[in-house]
Amino acid sequence: MKTVGKMNAKVNGNVERKLMLIDGEWTASAGGEFIPVETPAKKGTIIAEVPRAMEADVDRSVKAAAKAFESWKRMSPRDRGKLMLKIAADMEAQSENLAKTLSLETGNAIRTQSRGEIALAADLFRFYGGVASEQKGETVPLGEQVLCYSRREPVGVVAGIIPWNSPILLGALKITMALTPGNTLILKPASDAPLAVLKMARICNAHLPRGVLNVVTGSGNECGTMLARHSGVRKLSLTGSSEVGKSIMAAAAERIVPVTLELGGKSPQIVFPDADDDHVVQSVINGMRFTRQGQSCTAGSRLFLHASIFDSFIDKLVKKLSTLKIGDPLDEATDIGAIINRMQFKKVCDYVKDGLEQKGSRLVMGGLPPKAGPLAQGYFMEPTIFTHIKNEWRIAREEVFGPVLVSIPWEDEEEAIRMANDSHYGLAAYVYSHDIGKALRTAHVIESGWIQVNQGLGILPGTSYGGFKQSGMGREYSLEGMLDKLYAAQVHHREPSVLTLQVHSPRCCKRSPGRVTFKSLQRL
Ligand code: NAD
Questions:
Q1: Mind listing the pLDDT tens digit for each residue in 261-286?
Q2: What distance in angstroms lies between residue 163's CA and the mean position of ligand 1's atoms?
Q3: Are the beta carbons of 408 and 386 closer than 8 angstroms?
Q4: Under 8 Å between Cβ of 491 and 499
């Protein structure tokens, strides 16, 4: 076996090689190659290596998932739900260990980020475990002689592809949403943050039949593309950038398979003149996800401040942000950790340079990262705020995915709403006003999938989450989201012992003749 990946990093003699999960077994890639995983808090330090999955590995995982599907789909939803609950309990029992790994590989601070992410991921297993039996069909009253009902059927093998910013949460989301209703899954974490996902997979694997959950590690261009194009995959579910979303949608179009896309954002935060207070300042900091280094799809990175409070609000914001501690993600005192990798760090720096070059823009906090000192040892950046930005500038239009907030003054409510909606994204939004009528009126005309009023919190299980426009399609975190992508198979009964079936799932089409008996219906 040899190591691949030309990163400017020294591989320590004692770097552990992790294995991936295919068909219930921990395995290296068929080619025997590995990819290094660097910790963002210490440039050049490799913390582990993971297999570089290629075509043969993807193919093996799809076959294993397809085989496992045959029996997994037959388990009652209630029993599948019970397994989700057991996984939730184990996740909670091992939460500290998971949180440490998560912080080490993502650079996210353990106290402000990773522990919460693990708790939310366990909550997701609990939520879907609890609603598993809600996989109900419906009866349709077509008349006395007809029994017409629908069943919700799993689609088969699902490919879940996730980014590096919240790998445990997003991994748990793909696992629960696919597995609970009877699909099987191949999960592909980002190559920058596969380690905590592999640990979560170990917990899941202790409870699940072999092949129900498979985790393949590798790059997007290689194993991600192969997975998206594999003919045995019946549904694609991506959380990632809008660019990759387009290629996933194209792959889905080739085979006409359903697709869920949770993509990027450039979300607005609108502050009305009556909301110039400390609670709103803290909510704007939360909404911008500064303690996640701004690396969140829902980061409220465009701040529309009423002109009459512009200066005083920015003053309070800078004061508050200056109290946050940046540094070692594993240090309990740290509020803000490191940016994920060299490439993303450079990308964020380029946006800062671009902002600095715009005529009229003002940098009021942060800026380019330090070149020396303890913070220069990792990919650390201070929270950065630009004022007097124009909504049409690149820095206000493109997703930076870093701790860079641009603020734009407004005078007229309609102008603020027009600027907020003038974006090809539509993921999240935040509105702040003590006049609840005004806040709700504004919330209703913002083109975003998730709008918060007077708070900047994170998503919770049970609420349907997803984007408008190029922020994506489909909904996650909710029961409706889970049921949405199942096949609705309709059954029509016309005579006492003979049934006419109208089915839309590939499984039933293959097996069912036009007429079946009650007995065979029970077997379906
Ligand atoms: P990315 O799109 O580069 O990668 C996401 C995943 O897709 C990774 O696993 C990657 O390996 C894989 N991938 C890359 N190219 C691929 C291809 N051609 N075919 C198949 N798979 C491929 O995103 P990233 O840089 O890892 O994450 C940041 C992006 O994710 C941001 O745009 C952010 O807004 C978005 N995001 C969205 C949500 C949401 O819920 N809407 C949540 C988190 C992150």
A1: 999 999 999 999 999 999 999 999 99
A2: 4
A3: no
A4: yes
